[in-house]
Write a structure and sequence with these properties.
This protein has one domain. By secondary structure, it is mainly α. The N and C termini lie far apart (49 Å). Helix 2 crosses helix 4. It has four helices and no strands.
């Protein structure tokens, strides 16, 4: 089984995201790896946000 095939197994992606959830930069880097991973990793990042400040610059005035 190739590396790409491993990341199509969502249980593995969820486990990796669980290990990375306390390191937001590592989780963001993981999310940027490919499209299959990004949805799950970004869901974890959004769930762990403790402030809305990171999205304030994107809110129209």
């Amino acid at each position: 089984m190739g590396v790409r095939a491993v990341f199509t197994i969502m249980e593995i992606v969820h486990m990796i995201c669980g290990f990375l959830e306390d390191d937001k930069m590592a989780l963001l880097s993981f999310a940027c790896c490919n499209q299959v991973i990004s949805e799950t990793a970004l869901d974890v990042l959004w769930a762990k946000m403790d402030s809305i400040m990171p999205i304030v610059p994107f809110v129209p005035e």
